From TrEMBL:
Keywords: Membrane, Transmembrane, Transmembrane helix. PROSITE patterns: VWFA (PS50234). The lineage of its organism: Bacteria, Bacillati, Actinomycetota, Actinomycetes, Micromonosporales. Residues 1-23, 60-79 are annotated as: Disordered. Residues 367-565 form the VWFA domain. Residues 60-74 have a biased composition (Low complexity). The chain crosses the membrane at residues 30-51. Residues 1-18 have a biased composition (Basic and acidic residues). This is Substrate-binding domain-containing protein.
Length: 572
């Protein structure tokens, strides 16, 4: 520090020997320097606390460390605030500014304490706030079902739609003429045209909760079969590089990026509230962001003002009145709801169930062998139309092939013996990395093409047991640390009609004999149609630590395959 920069309260430093000064002068200088250091440390501690809390108010009203009584009297700690407020992080600055206007003149201790908090965090807190401003009224519905009583006061404060956001450099990959869809995003990540996609935790954040609902609403519109729709939604989930990111942290990481390339491959496309996007764009960051609201499942954050049952309403009502529309619109919020949004379910449970499935999805680098029944019974028609079991499998299987993330190692066999000397099964897609080469094409593409051309053998028998034994034995040799291995088998019948036929007792004996606890290979078995031997499938699943799933109505095949895919991950 130069002489010119030295605080005015103290003389500039003396560059000679301290011994040149009289003893009283040295004592005064040491005491003055000590006071400055204490004050700077105290101020620095408060500043750090403010940054840590993301608020202009400290989390507590604790005073600084007291100075000796000879220099300054002790400061009485502030009492508990009269009103505690939890607000979604993006609207918290507006609520806090309104609360400041209610501070009594000359009073050191503020009567209102406002904290920024994601709604899921507030919901799980032991001490509930007196006032809650979540970023969706859906959280109030969930709170009510959890026996937490809040009543809304006045009209909804503000609105802000969820935008699919990304660096401008890749905006054209999913935004056309300022418009986009969730299905466009799914197609983009499935084809790897969009390199990276990220989302927020749906059990904690409004961005995550509403985005999961928007994805499911969009896929339900695009697919006539609910199972296919679920498979498409899970396709997006399986490709996310991060599914539990904090919305503010995502924008903070983006703001810290020094170049567009790293931003694209670190975060990529992610949902954000429009107000957050607008605030980022005003910041003049090096990486520019763009965004659009998906038209096939538009979801919107809304900000109710809710008062907890039993809380003092006087100060709460005054705070409500102090929050102005002008302040909200200047902060980037909308005053009215956006038309054309997806309707939310009537209950919190209906909203949370897919969110829990989404959050519980394990992004494992697992290994899987698909065993597909190609016996003659798969050519049977279902219902009164032209559809057959095989045609439904072609449709569902093509969607299922997109579910596996880029870390998956996979192979596929068909089983069905049409002649006396036919093998029990044939390898249709060699086992290897899903993005690796398989016959001159990417293995994922080979899987998709093979399933699309799937044609069962007429009059072929069903060597189910032999195929499962061989599949489990083959996968046991592939077991690697940190890469769980599973066998997924789909069949519409029971073992029989071939030279490989055996009793269930013999099958179970051979299955148990090959078991190796150090190299587990769970079997996930899907029984397809009313003739599937579910007891046999259940026994093989139980013996290997897997799961059996019944799809008695062949039209439910896609839903069963989605369940099998989730079960394969849960088994590990």
């Amino acid at each position: 520090m130069s002489d010119n920069e030295w605080p005015r309260e103290l003389p500039p430093p003396h560059h000679g020997d301290w011994g040149d000064e009289p003893p009283q002068a040295r004592s005064r200088m040491l005491l003055s320097a000590g006071l400055v250091i204490v004050v700077l440390l105290a101020a620095g501690g408060v500043a750090w606390q403010l940054m840590r809390n993301g608020s202009a108010q400290p989390a507590t009203q604790a005073s600084a460390a007291p100075l000796p009584s000879s220099t300054q009297p002790s400061v009485t700690p502030c009492p508990d605030p009269e009103l505690t407020v939890a607000a979604a992080p993006e609207i918290e600055p507006v609520i806090r500014a309104a609360a400041v206007t209610l501070n009594p003149p000359g009073q050191r201790c503020a009567p209102i304490l406002v904290r920024a908090e994601e709604p899921g965090v507030t919901l799980a807190a032991v001490d509930q706030p007196d006032v809650w401003v979540p970023s969706s009224s859906a959280w109030l519905r969930i709170a009510e079902e959890n026996k937490l009583a809040f009543r809304t006061s006045g009209a909804t404060l503000a609105y802000s739609p969820i935008m699919l956001t990304a660096p401008e450099a890749i905006g054209s990959l999913y935004i056309k003429d300022g418009k986009t869809t969730w299905n466009e995003l799914i197609e983009g990540v499935a084809s790897e045209r969009i390199p990276v996609a990220t989302m927020s935790d749906p059990l904690t954040t409004t961005t995550g909760l509403l985005s999961v609902h928007g994805v499911h609403a969009a896929t339900a519109l695009a697919a006539r079969d609910p199972g296919i729709a679920q498979l498409r939604a899970l396709t997006l989930r399986s490709r996310l590089t991060d599914a539990a990111a904090d919305p503010g942290s995502l924008l903070g990481r983006m703001a810290a990026q020094s170049d567009t390339t790293s931003a694209v491959y670190d975060i990529g496309v992610f949902p954000a509230i429009e107000q957050q996007l607008l605030a980022y764009q005003k910041g003049g960051h090096r990486v520019a962001l763009t965004g659009a609201a998906p038209s096939d499942g538009m979801v919107e954050a809304d900000y109710p003002y809710a008062i907890r049952k039993g809380a003092k309403t006087g100060l709460a009502d005054r705070l409500r009145a102090a929050i102005t529309k002008q302040a909200l619109t200047e902060a980037g919020f909308r005053a009215e709801p956006t038309a054309g949004g997806a309707r939310l379910p009537g209950t919190g449970k209906a909203l949370l169930d897919p969110a829990r499935q989404w959050a519980g999805f394990q992004s494992l680098a697992f290994q899987v062998l698909l065993l597909i029944d190609a016996s003659g019974s798969m050519n049977e028609k279902i219902g009164g139309g032209p559809a057959t079991k095989a045609s439904l499998l072609r449709e569902s299987g093509a969607s299922a092939a997109q579910l596996f993330n880029r870390d998956t190692t996979i192979g596929m066999w068909y089983f069905g013996a049409g002649a006396a000397n036919s093998p029990a099964h044939t390898e249709e897609v060699s086992f290897g990395p899903i993005n690796g080469d398989a016959g001159g094409k990417k293995r994922r593409d080979a899987l998709t093409e093979k399933i699309k051309t799937y044609r069962p053998q007429s009059n072929a028998g069903t060597p189910l047991y032999q195929t499962v034994l061989d599949g489990v034995a083959a996968m046991r040799e592939e077991v690697k640390s940190g890469r769980p291995s599973v066998v997924v088998v789909l069949t519409d019948g029971a073992d029989g009609g071939t030279r490989f036929a055996m009793s269930q007792q013999e099958f179970q004996k051979r299955l148990a004999a090959g078991r190796d606890p150090a190299r587990p290979v769970p079997v996930i078995a899907v029984g397809y149609g009313p003739d599937a031997n579910m007891p046999a499938l259940q026994s093989m699943a139980k013996a290997t630590g897997g799961q059996a799933i019944a799809a008695k109505n062949p039209a439910d095949l896609a839903s069963a395959m989605a369940k099998a895919f989730l079960a394969a991950r849960a088994a590990n």
